Amino acid sequence: MITGKNYIGYAQSANGDTTYHTFNPKENAKNAPTFYEATTQEIDSAVSLAHKAFSSFRKTSGAQRAQFLKAIANEIEALGDTLFTTYMSETGLPEGRAKGECGRTLGQLRMFAALVQNEDWRNPTISGESQELKQLLIPLGPVVVFGASNFPLAYSTAGGDTASALAAGCPVIVKSHPMHAGTGELVANAIVKAAKDTGMPEGVFSNLNSAGIEVGVQLVKHPQVKAVGFTGSIKGGRALYDLASQRAEPIPVFAEMGSINPVIITQNALENRSAEIAQTYADSITLGVGQFCTNPGLILGVASPQMAEFVNDLGAKTASIDPYCMLHPNIHNAFESNGEDVLSQNEIQLVASYQGDTEPAFAKAKIATVPGAVFLKNTKLHQEVFGPFSLVVQCKDEAELLDIIEQLEGQLTGTIIAQEEDYASLSPIIERLQDRVGRIVFNGVPTGVAVVDAMTHGGPYPASTDSRFTAVGNQSIKRWVRPFSYQGFPKELLPEFLK
Amino acid sequence: MITGKNYIGYAQSANGDTTYHTFNPKENAKNAPTFYEATTQEIDSAVSLAHKAFSSFRKTSGAQRAQFLKAIANEIEALGDTLFTTYMSETGLPEGRAKGECGRTLGQLRMFAALVQNEDWRNPTISGESQELKQLLIPLGPVVVFGASNFPLAYSTAGGDTASALAAGCPVIVKSHPMHAGTGELVANAIVKAAKDTGMPEGVFSNLNSAGIEVGVQLVKHPQVKAVGFTGSIKGGRALYDLASQRAEPIPVFAEMGSINPVIITQNALENRSAEIAQTYADSITLGVGQFCTNPGLILGVASPQMAEFVNDLGAKTASIDPYCMLHPNIHNAFESNGEDVLSQNEIQLVASYQGDTEPAFAKAKIATVPGAVFLKNTKLHQEVFGPFSLVVQCKDEAELLDIIEQLEGQLTGTIIAQEEDYASLSPIIERLQDRVGRIVFNGVPTGVAVVDAMTHGGPYPASTDSRFTAVGNQSIKRWVRPFSYQGFPKELLPEFLK
Predict the structure, then answer these.
(1) Residues B23 and B179: beta-carbon distance below 8 Å
(2) Residue of B130, B451, B482, B498 for testing the chain A interface, max A β-carbons within 10 Å
(3) Averaged over A415-442, what is the pLDDT?
(4) Which one of A280, A456, A499 would you mutate to disrupt binding with B, by most B Cβ within 10 Å of its Cβ?
(5) Annotated active-site residue in B37, B75, B101, B256
(6) A197: left (phi over 0), alpha (psi -120 to 50) or beta
(7) Do residue A423 and residue B454 have CB atoms under 8 angstroms apart?
(8) How high is the mean pLDDT of chain B?
(9) What kind of fold does domain A262-442 have according to CATH?
């Protein structure tokens, strides 16, 4: 069923000699299919087909693209257990997660189909005496989408970036994530079938395999590529951003990158419901083995006896949760070494870590703590440890807490856990936090990103490369479009919906 | 009246030793006031004040900022003849232009005041069961605005970039354009007075002088600067874009840069109204001595006897227009040398140039022509000659014309001059042109940019550094804001208008 080949438009192709395999972290064994890295020629063909497809794809009506998106959703849905089995074999994630993420993916495709069913999303605007000027949003051109390691479906091959770009009228070339290339091929198959069935031009979609960085580098540098979507590490996202901004014609890169998602807990909250907060956060920190970009990696509060007790309780509760395998041994190794790196810093204290034996790629959740003054001075402690790890920073007073918030790097989310009696004094925290994040959660957890219009999934650098956009929800389509004005046009020459 | 000093917040300051003068190109003499370049310390102070001002400025209501913007407009209006006299002495432009540009500037300030009078511009959005998520647009932080040489009022100190950034709640630091530093100081005075009178925080605005590039470089690299607006040359805009994208924390740069604004004329149009088109274009090419970013620098058509006649007629009409002085001897020198550079290329033919004697900084308008095949091969011919210069490209057939459009660099505008009988066959031209420009003008001239909602003043690189935004009209405020979401917030803690 899985060929390991690239999709160059409608054709499967495997001209290269470099091959790789995906890995089952739960069984600690590589999966059978052999994947073929795309060659320079295959990359060129995919981009060239996308460039050609753009000239007709941009002219399709929103209703036609809606049909295409709905057909993709239906084809993915029809994959059924084949998809889930492959997904699980390439990630170690449980069936419930596979099905949940698939539902989210189908929902996103159908949401963008509904958005572009008519042309209102183009924000048609008419101005001037005698309606001289007519403006609308038009697509940028071919978009390269990099699949995310931690969302093989919802932020990869047919995920949010692909769905929003196709909805906008931009052909998409996916650089498949090597950890789940089989899942990627199944979804690519579904997209290609849907494209053929709904009469889309060949090249509207291609799927390129690669285990290294070279394919991605060539794609981002290609003159006919007009924008890039990426979800992953700061290092990876920044490298692509740099390549794109150094081009003769710079292009926009929307990279959603790392975040430690600070959580501020007030003294009143600890005095009223410390045990409940500890349980909620032990669950949030270990949810999906901590492999979410909104995982709470940093907890901030003012030092007190209640805080000391909370830290121990959070540690005990987190360390008591059964380990589970991470997505890939490489991700597990990074979790271990990044954790060790943080724990080797001065004046940091490991509060608790799971104590039993585990299987090879299974992560032992950890809680550590550090005084505010130490955290302020040592930016190594601000770095993300991707996985079930959280650092509790105990500040000497609220002034130090405010200083820390002000000096934090940009974040996807910030969370405030507080009591009603705190409301009157929360403004300084809210204002400083608002300046550093894309979303503030009140008395909740940052994990869980609703796919709705009012969602901001993005934030000041390095949470994203451009805080003016969001990666989730209908508004994420704005990343791939630009305003365009017709001036003094005769009706006959305007698009139907502008007449 | 003009001190030559910088405005660092509310204080005038001249700590540096580097000085310069502005120049009256009409009288060929330098103006009296001495201007003091901002020092590194003055730059730091201005940015530090802006950073501090942001924490309170961002909390002002839209209605308060509207008061501020209207007060700026009133203060500029009150400058009256002092402003016009200084403007004319620093640009050589006539009084009518000074007054017209002033009116545009006041109009823009009042337009943004009207926009932010209530908070609808923030696009408040509510989603989720029990309205969990509430999203709105918030300001990015301090913005650096580079004054444009060719619009001392409308795209400089209190021009569109400044007005839109202040409207959004972003403090502004202006890097004053050295050619009209006196005009800049008068306007800066007006802004500072308005800021004081309407109770704005000190640092909401600063004005820095500089004749070289160092002040601009330091501003763009400053960690507390969060965005940049620029209008000027490709070389200048690209240098700032590169600096901004190489920062540890990259920031958005909206640079509106050069454009040759292609005009396509059909054979039918030439057969019907060649003389009228020639007159319209001779006027558009020489309007404001060709010193507009939307000046038509390139005219395209299929070779024919009528085209040959049109070229000669356009040349004769353009060359018969009395020369007038350019903004500055440096701009005149660049016009001369860039024109010579283009005219020295192979197979290019000078059709006509003004033949009389002129005063030193006065520009002699020129029309040249070249075969399509030569233009296609030689990208030197695609470069902007800023001033009253236009190149007519005579293509061997429509296929070559389409090739040329497809291979053009990004442009602010494209224009189509056609007859009704052409309509049925214009699609290939319109589609290719749409891909290369921000605005298509039909049977008109590209010069003249209406300040209205449906205006797109921007376009694919190098017309701008980010085609997803416009520099003119209400929508230009989107350059300086980002979406932000409140999740699960109690009503008491939400901004008034989100409750």
Answers:
(1) yes
(2) B482
(3) 97
(4) A456
(5) B256
(6) alpha
(7) no
(8) 97
(9) Aldehyde Dehydrogenase; Chain A, domain 2 (3.40.309)
Residue range A6-257+464-498 forms a domain whose CATH class is alpha beta
pLDDT of residue B71: 98
Spatial distance between the Cα atoms of A75 and B486, rounded to a whole number of angstroms: 36
What tens digit of pLDDT does each residue of B237-289 get?
A: 999 999 999 999 999 999 999 899 999 999 999 999 999 999 999 999 999 99
**pTM for the model:** 0.97
Confidence class for position A1, pLDDT limits 50, 70, 90: confident
The three state secondary structure string of A308-341 is HHHHHHHHHHHHCCCCEECCCHHHHHHHHHHHHH
Task: Look up the ipTM and state it.
Answer: 0.97
Q: Please give the pLDDT value at position A131.
A: 81
E strand residue ranges, A273-410: 298-302, 324-325, 349-353, 362-363, 366-371, 389-395
Structural domain boundaries in chain A? 6-257+464-498, 262-442
All residues at 6 or more sequence positions from B322 whose CB lies less than 8 Å from its CB, including other chains: B354
- Residue found by looking up tokens 């020198």 in the block: B333
Confirm or reject contact between A252 and chain B (CB < 8 A): yes
Distance CA B270, CA B200 (A): 57
What is the rounded CA–CA span in Å between residue A391 and residue A263?
10
* Nearest chain A residue (CA) to B409: A249
3-class SS shares of chain B: helix, strand, coil, % to 5? 45, 20, 35
From chain B, the residues in CB contact with A490 under 8 A are: 420, 423, 442
DSSP B37: P
Mutate to test the interface with B, among A482, A491, A498 (most CBs of B within 10 A): A482
Burial pattern A374-412, b for ≥16 Cβ within 10 A else e, equals: ebbeeeebbbbbbbbbbbbbbbeeeebbbbbbeebbbbb
Q: CA-CA distance, B454 to B452, in Å (whole number)?
A: 6
Spatial separation of the C-alpha atoms in residues A171 and A169, rounded to whole Å: 7
| Per-window interface: A 448-487 vs B, CB < 8 A | 450, 452-456, 458, 460-462, 465-470, 473, 475, 478-479, 481-487
Chain B residues whose CB is inside 8 A of the A437 CB are: 484
Q: Which of B140, B456, B487 sits opposite A483 (nearest CB)?
A: B456
Query: Would you say B91 and B180 are in contact if contact means Cβ atoms under 8 Å apart?
Result: yes
Residues 122-181 of B with CB under 8 A from A: 125-128, 132-135, 138, 140-141
Q: Which two tokens stand for residue A123?
A: 């924000």
B434 touches chain A (CB under 8 A): yes
CA distance A459 to A439: 8
Asked about B256 being catalytic, the answer comes back as: yes
pLDDT tens string A212-251: 999 999 999 999 999 999 999 999 999 999 999 999 999 9
pLDDT tens sequence across A64-101: 999 999 999 999 999 999 999 999 999 999 999 999 99
CA B428 to chain A, closest CA, distance in angstroms equals: 10
What is chain A's percent helix, strand, coil content, to nearest 5?
A: 45, 20, 35
Query: What single letter denotes the amino acid at residue A258?
Result: G
Token representation of residue A286: 């270990």
Strand-pair partners of A6: A13
pLDDT in tens, B119-169: 999 999 999 777 899 999 999 999 999 999 999 999 999 999 999 999 999
- CB-nearest to B450 from A133, A134, A492 is A133
Which amino acid belongs to residue A443? N
- Asked whether A152 and A99 are in contact (CB, 8 A), the reply is no
Characterise A351 by phi-psi region: left (phi > 0), alpha (psi -120 to 50), beta (else).
alpha
The alpha carbon of residue A219 and the mean position of all alpha carbons in its chain are separated, in whole angstroms, by: 19
